[in-house]
Design brief:
Number of domains of chain B: 2
Structural class of chain A: alpha+beta
Number of helices of chain A: 15
Radius of gyration of chain B: 19 Å
Mean pLDDT of chain B: 83
Number of strands of chain B: 5
Strand order of the largest sheet of chain A: 4-6-7-9-8
Shape of chain B: globular
Distance between the termini of chain A: 72 Å
CATH class of the largest domain in chain B: Alpha Beta
Radius of gyration of chain A: 35 Å
Strand order of the largest sheet of chain B: 2-1-3-4-5
Helix content of chain A: 55-70%
CATH architecture of the largest domain in chain A: Up-down Bundle
CATH class of the largest domain in chain A: Mainly Alpha
Largest sheet of chain B: 5 strands, parallel
Mean pLDDT of chain A: 83
Structural class of chain B: alpha/beta
Oligomer: heterodimer
Low-confidence stretches of chain B: none
CATH superfamily of the largest domain in chain A: Rhodopsin 7-helix transmembrane proteins
Shape of chain A: elongated
Chain lengths: 434, 251
């Protein structure tokens, strides 16, 4: 029997390792489960020791034997109390109704633990193996039955209000408690309490405390926070900006009014990022709004676009041009005091693809930088996504083009003879043939 | 030509003030005769004033703008409704089209473009009036001039070309447009060129450059820019939106 206890201990130790190393939310429910896991591990240790000592009554001193037995039963009662607490918290979370039996359950716990420590233990010796019986064990059965009834009562009372997963977990726990106790009651020598406890803990773990589910929940929570932070109601933004714009124009400040108009245009377009592919026209519109604002801020900056009008309907990955142009501005033209030109052109290549070029007259690549960028763009699939900083970055653009259009397309850079660099974006032209 | 009477409906006072003071109504032959800040008030004002044009916001208190239009439509079939809204939601647009509104403008309003919208409204009123007079007694000069323009859209048309064709002075023709239609010669020309371009975009498979040429624009860049300014979208977007939309309704 000792081997079973060791196996159970190893299984739960493994579960505990995964559970504690995973990222999770810190709620009462998860804290209770953490405590439960630790107590169960201790319990299995005492269980194993007791299985040994109870069968070696002659060699192990009586005092030691009693002490381990009391620890074994004591942790078991604590575990059943924790099972009940876990179920109660679960039901409380689902229904919002507070658990009124919390205090009685706690008082009974103190009572039961006192009983465990003080009541006399009697050992029954049989040819199949030894076990304890008498008042001490009856008391232990009573405790298990008490917490079982509380748990089952909670389940039945709130059956309709709790979700399927919680119902399943609580149901399994109650069923295992019932069957385990009955079997143990009939076959005293089986000593299967450890198995029952492990099964219930595993059920909770697999159904409710699975790290994958918890991580997904956590990620979702973080995402929605980010979403809320980034999304002021857009209509509030438009309307307020518009009111300011009209006031500016009424005050005779036409330039401010015009800029606000551009800003609203840019916002309006940039919130439409829910589609992976957009038309080149849409993409250019966003870019033009961005460039007009930048050109106003830096009057010596010029921007020129030359787009083949029949390519306007071609599908391109969303939001690829603005990051590239922003890159040209920040790394090329900024060093020249934003004096210079950005030229954006799009044309059909002889091979039937589309090539978009962003050519700037900036400072060009620093020594060695070209090779570094080429390498990064070539090994894009081995690069970790960079989420820091304010811009989406060229790596992200490269990744999305490769993902959405295919590996033969993508972004590359060349140096201009007259200074500055040109970004070449090669894209398929499927939208046209349809 | 009489001044067109305009009613402004928007719940924000600043927006109404902006419309009143920042757009040159007089230059476009219009006059603001009233304002309303909510749906009920708008309904009452439309009944009391019987305006030629109603500038309508959708999201207004008590009753939304589309509902107001729906209720007023029967009693005031000739009133032109121009929706000015911050929502470019497609369902709104569809509802608005069903109510036969004149135009749908997105906030923030560019007052220059708004002038184009008023001009187009006048031109369509002029065309409708001509169609109603079925019997061509003695055709008025302006009607012949506009017909000539319609028929020679792909060619170069200017005041001097027209002057030669009709043996009139360019100044006189220019005056004629102002007094008969209420818009300048160039606005009229641009407007009918855009109409032609839209027709070609939707009913033919011509390339943008070809559409541009047939609508009288030698340089497609100028055409694309003008189209964008007047319709809010580029020519290819316009064609695609329509095709997608009809695809959707077929499905």
């Amino acid at each position: 029997m000792l081997r079973m206890e060791i196996a159970l201990f190893l299984v739960l130790a493994f579960v505990a390792f995964i559970y504690f190393s995973a990222e999770k939310k810190h709620t009462t429910l998860h804290r209770t489960f953490s405590v439960l896991l630790i107590v169960v591990l201790f319990h299995l240790v005492f269980d194993g020791i007791t299985v040994y000592t109870v069968n070696h009554l002659e060699t192990v001193p009586r005092l030691l034997n009693d002490a381990f037995h009391r620890l074994f039963i004591g942790t078991m009662i604590l575990i059943f109390y924790l099972f009940y607490r876990y179920i109660a918290i679960l039901v409380e979370n689902e229904t919002g109704k507070p658990d009124r039996l919390r205090l009685p359950a706690r008082i009974y716990l103190v009572f039961a633990e006192l009983g465990d420590m003080l009541l006399p233990i009697h050992y029954a010796v049989t040819p199949q193996g030894n076990y304890s019986d008498g008042i001490h064990v009856v008391f232990c059965y009573l405790s298990v039955a008490f917490y079982f009834l509380l748990g089952a009562g909670l389940l039945l009372k709130n059956l309709k209000d709790i979700n399927k997963k919680a119902r399943m977990a609580i149901g399994i726990a109650c069923l295992v408690e019932l069957i385990g106790t009955l079997l143990q009651g009939i076959h005293h020598t089986w000593l299967i309490s450890g198995m029952g406890i492990t099964l219930i803990t595993l059920a909770f773990y697999l159904i409710l405390e699975n790290p994958d589910i918890l991580r997904a929940e956590l990620t979702e929570q973080k995402m929605s926070m980010l979403y809320l932070k980034s999304q002021v109601n857009p209509h509030f933004l438009y309307n307020t900006l518009d009111t300011i714009r009209i006031q500016a124009q009424l005050n005779g400040d036409g330039k401010v009014a015009e800029l606000l108009m551009q800003l609203v245009d840019f916002f309006r377009m940039s919130i439409k990022v829910d589609r992976p592919m957009v038309t080149l026209d849409d993409e250019m519109e966003l870019l033009e709004a961005y460039m007009e604002l930048m050109c106003y801020r830096y009057p010596e900056l010029r921007c020129e676009c030359d787009i083949d009008p029949d390519l306007g309907g071609a599908q391109v990955p969303n939001f690829i041009l603005q990051p590239i142009v922003e890159n040209s501005l920040l790394h090329g033209l900024k060093n020249k005091g934003y004096r210079g030109e950005v030229k954006i052109s799009a044309q059909r290549t002889p091979q039937g693809c589309m090539e978009i070029c962003v050519r700037d007259s900036g400072s060009g690549f620093a020594d060695g930088k070209k090779a570094e960028i080429d390498e990064m763009l070539r090994t894009y699939d081995r690069q970790a996504p960079k989420l820091t900083g304010n811009s989406i970055g060229v790596l992200n653009v490269q990744k999305r083009i490769k993902l959405l259009c295919g590996r033969e397309y993508g972004l590359s850079y060349t140096e201009n003879e007259a200074g500055g660099i040109t970004a070449h974006i090669l894209l398929p032209l499927e939208g046209e043939t349809k | 030509m009489n001044n067109l009477r305009v009613l402004l409906v928007d719940d924000e006072i600043m927006i109404r003030e902006g419309f009143k003071r920042l757009f040159d109504w007089a230059a476009h032959g219009c006059e603001v005769v009233g304002e309303a800040a909510d749906g009920m008030e708008a309904l009452a004002r439309i009944d009391a004033l019987n305006p030629d044009i109603v500038i309508m916001d959708i999201n207004i208190p008590i009753m939304n703008g589309l509902k107001v239009i729906g209720l007023s439509r029967i009693k005031h079939p000739d009133t032109a409704f121009i929706i000015v809204s911050g929502y470019d939601d497609f369902s709104y647009c569809r509802e608005a089209l069903r109510l036969q509104i004149t135009d749908y403008i997105l906030k923030p309003v560019n007052y220059e473009e708004f002038g184009t919208c008023i001009d187009n409204l006048k031109i369509s009123m002029f065309h409708r009036k001509n169609e109603q007079k079925a019997e061509p007694q003695e055709e008025r000069t302006i009607v012949s001039v506009t017909r000539y323009m319609q028929e020679h859209l792909a060619e170069e048309i200017s005041l001097s070309v027209l002057a030669e064709e009709f043996h009139l002075s360019p100044q006189y023709i220019s005056q004629l447009f102002k007094s008969e239609i209420g818009v300048g010669f160039l606005s009229y020309l641009t407007s009918i060129r855009m109409e032609k371009a839209k027709k070609l975009l939707l009913s033919t498979a011509l390339s943008i450059a070809e559409v541009s040429e047939q609508s009288g624009y030698g340089d497609y860049r100028v055409f694309t820019k003008t189209f964008k300014k007047s319709e809010g979208v580029t020519p290819s977007q316009y064609r695609r939106d329509f095709l997608e939309d009809s695809g959707k309704s077929k499905a």
